[in-house]
Hints:
alpha+beta; Alpha-Beta Plaits; 2 domains; disordered N terminus
Amino acid sequence: MPASARLPCSDGYRVIADTCRFLLLLHCIPSLEDARCSSVSHEPREFTLGKQLRPELISKCIELMYFQASNAYSSSVVAGLILGVLFWNRAPRAGIIAWFVCYGIMIAIRHRLGVRFLATPRRHEDAQRWLRYFAIVVGICGLIWGVYGVFLARHADTYDIAVVILSLGALLSGAVTAYSVSMPVYLAFATPTMLPIGAWLLASPVRGQRFLGLMVFAWMIFMFFSARRFRKFALESLAHQFENVNLVRNLEELAGQLKKLSSIDSLTNVANRRSFDEEFEAALASAKRDGAPLSLILCDIDFFKHYNDAYGHMQGDVCLRSIASQLDVVAKRLGALAARIGGEEFAVILRQAGVDSGVQLAEELRRAIERLGIVHSKSNSGYVTGSFGVCSMVPADATTRSELLQRADGALYEAKRAGRNRVCADQPAGIRDGSVTGGDMQGAMYH
């Protein structure tokens, strides 16, 4: 540096002292943040696998760093513009322009890398690879800053050197919050940013500049430990988030399981009365809205009390499970819901179906029970059988659940009165699959 460009000794040391105080103030900012975090932090959470971060946590850290990229771009460009304006008439302009070109290219590369990362499906096995990409790009950006800082310092007096150091120190402070969730990424930026200016100052023949060089290295050490503390609290916060997400997911799964259990009959594993009531309400409302037919089938196992008396309640439970399984399979094949609504009583709801479809399904259900061939010595046929009552109608706005249930129950009573093991239908005359011609109530029996 030309002798004429140097300041008197007292002024030079005053600049050095002011620079040191500003750097210490910057150091206090992450420290205060650490203190705030420590006041609310809890016990450390398990967010590592051995000495490695869990892959899902690495992915989250990369995502956070990419989202911080816009702040890093803007602060770096602003700092570069300020230094460029300050040194425009002091340093070779080609060097300043070259910095803007190189840094602009790196911003474009970092942006493109971020877009690809956010657009790529997250696979945990790729987390380390993306982290390496980001560390390399950030390291090149730091190196560009480090070379730029030395380039400007070579054409600066003591005041201007202080400005360069403060600018680089401010960038390093920002890197603590932007990159310290990954120490390799933070070091990839911090080391090439501060090391060149620090080494250049230590090699300077001017004693005050050598002292500034020592302060630069001391500042790097302060920031390193601040970054480690910030990283610890950041990772614990992320670990809490993952725990909360997992807790919500587990609660949702548990709620789903509880809902399923609350809608399934514990003995037969088919829909229970609650599930039947909900489906019945929904089907009735849909039929009213669309003007479509709705079929309700009631089933009662013939002489089941005698079966329990003859073979015992445990065997009766086995019988009910076998019958319920067959009813469920047949009903699901046609998109219907089979439910156990009482001891030996079952119900089937068939949407968009007139009496023909309802009776046909009921007959298939009756035959399915017969095919089981469950011996019943107290039954007329010698086997377990079922009686079925069918009600099919296009419900009017005033039609209620009770009305359909009463008609289906009346048809079931007719099936029992006629000798059991048969299907009886009760519906307004003329109602077939999708057609209504009107008329009085009449009974129909099928066997």
